[in-house]
Amino acid sequence: MSGTPFPAISGIVLRYLYLYTRNGLRAFELFFWPLNTLLVWGFLTRYLTQAGEGGASLPVTFLLGGVLLWDVQFRASQGVSVSFLEDVWTRNLLNVFVAPVRTWELVAGFCTVGLLRVIITVPILSLMAFLAFRFNIFDFNLWLIPFFGNLLIFGWAMGMMANAMVLRWGQAAEGLSWALPFLLQPFTAVYYTVETLPGFLQPVSLALPSTHVFEAMRHAMAGDVRIGQGLFLAFGLNLAWLTGAGLVMNRVLAIARDKGLLTKVATQ
Amino acid sequence: MLPPVLTVRDLVKDFGDFRAVDGISFELGQGEILGLLGPNGAGKTTMMNMLLGLVSATTGSIRIFGKSLEKDRIEILRRMNFSSAYTSLPGNLLVRQNLTVFALLYGLKDCRRRVRETMERFGVTELAERTTGHLSAGEATRVNLCKAFLNRPELLLLDEPTASLDPDVVDKVRTLIRETQRESGTSIIYTSHNMQDIEFVCDRVIFMHRGRLIRMGTPAEVKASFASASLEDVFIQIARGGDLEVAGVQ
C-alpha cells in the first residue's frame, strides 16, 4: 500500500469495502431492495402487456427501463449519504474530520462508494431483467454511458445535499436524508412522460437532470432520434446541481464550524 | 530555545450570546504535556475543538507549527492526531482494518508496516483480527491510542483518554502515554477529570473556569498558589467556590 495514489480517497473507499465484504447482511441489503422492485415492476409490466394483448408492450416496457435507470441514481445517492451516516452511527465522524482529509476528498470517496454500489448492483439487475422479462438493457447501446453518467452525477449531488441536511440539523434529518431521492421521484418522470404531470409541475420536472435522462430513454426505446439534445441538457443541469450541492455543503460546513455542530452530530 | 508547537492568542468563542471561551492565550512547548482542566462548562471541550479546527474562533488566533490553523489546516492535521473517550473507531471493522484505513487517511507510506509497528508498540498485536466493537473498554482505549500515534504526531490532543476505565487500566494507560511521549517527544494537550492522571502525566496545567484561564503553571505551582495539597482540592475549590474571585482573577 506504499505510495497509494489519492490515499485519503482510497482510505474512505477501503473502509466500505471492508464493511461490505465482512458482513453478509450488508451485501444482502445491497441486492434485496433493487431485486424486489425489479420483480414487482417486471411482473406488473408482464400483466399490463398481457392485458393490452400486446398492443401496449412498448409503453409498459418503459417501466422496466425506468426501474433499472432509477436504481442507478438511487444507489449513487445512497452511496454518498449512507457512507456519511455510517460514520455518524459508529461515532467515527470526529476521527474523520480531524484527519487530514479535504472536503473534496471526503466527497470524492463517498461518490466512489456510490459508483461501486452501482457497478455491483446494476449488472445483476440487468441480468435478472433479461432472464425474467427478456428486457435487454444493452439495446440502448452506447446511450447507456450518458444515461448512467448523468444519473450518477445527479445521485451524487442529491447525496451531498442529504449530508448537508444531516450536518445542519443533526440526526433528526436522517429520515429526510433517506427520503430525498423518493421526494423527487414523482416529479422526475421515471415511469411516465413529463406531459403526464400537471402543467405547473412540468418546469420543476424539467429542472431535474434525471427527467431528461428518463425522457431520452423512452425516446431511445421508441426508436426516436431526439436523444442527444436531452442528454446534453441533463449534463448542463447536472453541472449546475453539482456546483450548487458543493456550495451548499461548503456553506453548511462553515455554519457547522461556527455553531459547533460537527461535534454535536458526531457525538449525539 | 525551540519555537512553541502551539501558540494561542486572545482566543474568543461566542455561541450567540454565550461566551464559551473568553480571551485565552497560552503556548505549548516541544515535548511538553499540558493539562487542560476545569469543571463542566469551563470551556475545555470548545477549546479542544477549536484546536482541532472543528469549531471556528470568533476572534483571536491559533498557530500550530508556526502556521495558521485557519489557512493551513490540512497541512497541520497531517502532523497532529487526536483521541477521545467520546469517539470510537467503527465497531463493525477489525482492529487491523480500522488502523489501515486511518493510515491511508493520514497519507502514510507503507501503511501495513506502520500499522504493524504501532500495534506492537501499544501491545495490541493480538487484537488485530478482533472486531473493534467487541473489545473491552481498556482494549478499545489502547487501540484508540494506537490510532492516535499512527502518524507519529508532533502534537497530540487527548480528550479524557482514561474516562470510564478501572484504576488498574488507568494506571497502565497513563504509563503507556508517558512512556510513548518520552520516546517520541510528542507535545500533548491532555484533558481529564482524573486529577491523579493529570499530576502523573502533565508537565504544566491550565485551569479554566467559565471560559477564562484562571491559573497556569506546573502542578506544584498551581497547588501552591491555591495553598492546596492536591490538584483535586484546587479543582473542588474552583468548582464549588465557583467565582473567578476565588482564584484571584479580577
Please describe what this structure looks like:
The complex is a heterodimer of chains A (268) and B (250). Helices cover 77% and strands 0% of the residues of chain A. Chain A has 268 residues and is mostly helical. Chain A has one domain (7-267). The two termini of chain A are 34 Å apart. Chain B has two domains: 6-79 and 155-247, P-loop containing nucleotide triphosphate hydrolases (Rossmann fold, 3-Layer(aba) Sandwich), CATH 3.40.50.300; 88-152, no CATH class. In chain B, 36% of the residues lie in helices and 24% in strands. Chain B has nine helices and ten strands. Chain B has helices spanning 44-51, 73-77, 95-105, 111-121, 137-148, 167-184, 195-201, 219-225, 231-241; strands at residues 6-15, 18-28, 33-37, 59-64, 67-68, 80-84, 155-159, 187-191, 204-209, 212-217. In chain B, the strands form two sheets. Chain B has a six-stranded mixed sheet with strand order 6-7-8-3-9-10, with helices on both faces. In chain B, strands 2-1-4-5 form a four-stranded antiparallel sheet, with helices on one face. The model of chain B has no long low-confidence stretch (mean pLDDT 91). The interface between A and B is large, with 39 and 40 residues.
- Strand fraction of chain A equals under 5%
The strands making up the biggest β-sheet of chain B line up spatially as: 6-7-8-3-9-10
Low-confidence stretches of chain A: none
Alpha carbon gap, first and last residue of chain A: 34 Å
Average pLDDT reading of chain B = 91
> Rg of chain A from C-alpha positions?
19 Å
- Rg of chain B, Å, rounded: 18 Å
Per CATH, the class of the largest domain in chain B reads Alpha Beta
Helical fraction of chain B equals 25-40%
Largest sheet of chain B: 6 strands, mixed
Helical segment count of chain A: 11
Largest sheet of chain A: none
Overall body shape of chain A:
globular
Which spans of chain B have pLDDT < 50 for at least 5 consecutive residues? Answer: none
**Biggest interchain interface, per-side counts:** A-B, 39 and 40 residues
Number of strands of chain B: 10
The number of distinct structural domains of chain A comes to 1
For the termini of chain B, the CA-CA separation is 32 Å
CATH topology of the largest domain in chain B: Rossmann fold
Proper CATH architecture of the largest domain in chain B:
3-Layer(aba) Sandwich
